[in-house]
Amino acid sequence: MPRRGGPPEVNAGSMADIAFLLLIFFLVTTTIETDAGLDRMLPPIEPPDQDVVIKQKNIFTVNINKNGQLLVEEELLDLRDLRARAVEFLDNGGDGTCNYCRGGKDASSSDNPTKAIISLKNDRETKYATYITVQNELVGAYNELRNREAQRLYGRNFTEMEAEFLNPETPASIRDDLKDKVKAVQDLFPQKLSEAETSASN
């Protein structure tokens, strides 16, 4: 009986099939993390009919440096106090035309919520988490005031009404009713959050 030369061979014909099945398994079971975004409604691209003059006292400036420190109205401010300061600015009613404002009516601060603008500027090296936290605090200031007015007018929180209105499963009749209410509250405290051009670190 003749002797076979060399070591025995391993049948590798099915290795490609096994590798392909493993690849499919990992593709199906792997979850890919996505960055959290900010929900923003951009205005239409239409030039204004006339030049708008904005008084400096109607602009609430918030600057974030690369270390995550806040400079609000030229003063260092703790992040925990940002929402309260923004509410104070938006609810000021300095010119006396806002009959629902409960602020101090400081003549050196914002005239009316419809004229009040929050300007946010951050450094190129600002951490994303800090940027999102500041955004949340500023949007929270608007929602706090809108919730107050929605409770006064309709006995409900604005955030609940808005969530129900945006829910596609809400019946059309209820959405039509909520549409006018949501817009009415939004018009009392319109969200005018402007982002200035990012600055570079020195």
Automatic annotation (TrEMBL):
GO terms for molecular function: transmembrane transporter activity. It is found in: Cell membrane. Its main location: membrane. It is a single-pass membrane protein; Single-pass type II membrane protein. InterPro entries: ExbD. One of its GO terms (cellular component) is plasma membrane. This is Biopolymer transporter ExbD. It comes from Lentiprolixibacter aurantiacus.
